[in-house]
Each structure stands twice: as C-alpha cells, then as structure tokens.
C-alpha cells in the first residue's frame, strides 16, 4: 500500500521530528482517499501527538506496528514521553487504539502489509451508519423546525394582512370623519353668516316697526283732535 511504503521509508531513515510534517503531508492525502474522513481526522490527531512527543522514526513504527515479533524486534516499551519544559505526557496511544483500524503488521519479506483488521469495515460501517442516522435525525429536526417556522410565518403574514386591512379601513374612516368635520365647519360658517344677516334684517324690521308705531300715534292724536272739534 502506498501509505505503508511511506511509513517504511521514514522508519528506515530513522527520521527525526523535523521530518514529521513532511510525513503527514504525504501520508494524509493517501489515507483520505482510502478511508472515511473521520479516520483521517483521527490519524491527523495521532500524528500531532507524535510530533508533540518528539518521537523518532523507530518510535513511530513501533507505535504503528506493535506486532513486530516477525522481524525479531521487540515492540517499543510503554513509557512516558517528555514534551519539553518538564511536562510529562502519558503513553501515546497507538494508531489502532485511536482509529479502530487494528494494528498494522510489518515483516521483512513483505515490507508492510495491512492486516485484515486494519481496515475494520464493520467498525467504519457502524460509525458511518451512526453518523448517517444522526444526520437524518438532524435533518428531520431541521425540516420540522423549518415547517413550524413556515406555518408561523404564514400565520404572521395573514395577521399582518388583516392588520393592514384594518388600518386601511381605519384610515378611510378617519378620512371620512375629516371630510365630515370639514363639511360641518363649512355649514356652521354658512349658518353663522345667515344668522348675522337675519339679525341685521331683524334690526331693520324693528326700526320700521318703531316708525310705524310713531306714525300711528300721530294719526290717533289728529283723529281725537278732529272729534273734539266736531263737538
């Protein structure tokens, strides 16, 4: 496998910590094309842990291949690694402990061949199924929420339409009321003008009545004088 050959090359060269970024940049794209994204993320986290612990290439291979009995080499002892400034880290977990892919077997005749458990399709399939079910549940929940928001938006739009209609009716009523008030004011002004004219006419009539009464009294006085002269 291409990624196993890369690991073998770096293991034989006993690479130091400065070469680990190069290892990650060459190895991760290959694994990304062969395993799910979750496995790649776990591997990236594992490589980051390796770099933080400043492991050598041999330590890296021992972590990758715990079953080196076929090569006659003993697996790396379980020890703590110091990451600088006196901070002691716990034992770095092997790749199969993080990803569930199983240990990678290593032999001299077949440089690096993956074991049957290294792919672990059942675990990957179960994780993928779980992720799919979770995504389906989330999508169903989001769809229900969207449906509820849509119904709520429809109800709010209907209420807004009713309020706009009510406001339009209210504005029409206010316009009619203003028009009525204007008509009333105009009619009131006309009535005041007519009343003023009637008052003027009444004053003229009163004056004419006074003159007529005075003329009547004068005629009565003349009539009485004529009656007395006749006697």
UniProtKB/TrEMBL annotation:
Residues 112-129 have a biased composition (Low complexity). Residues 68-89, 103-134 are annotated as: Disordered. It comes from the Eukaryota. This is Uncharacterized protein. It comes from Ajellomyces dermatitidis (strain ATCC 18188 / CBS 674.68).
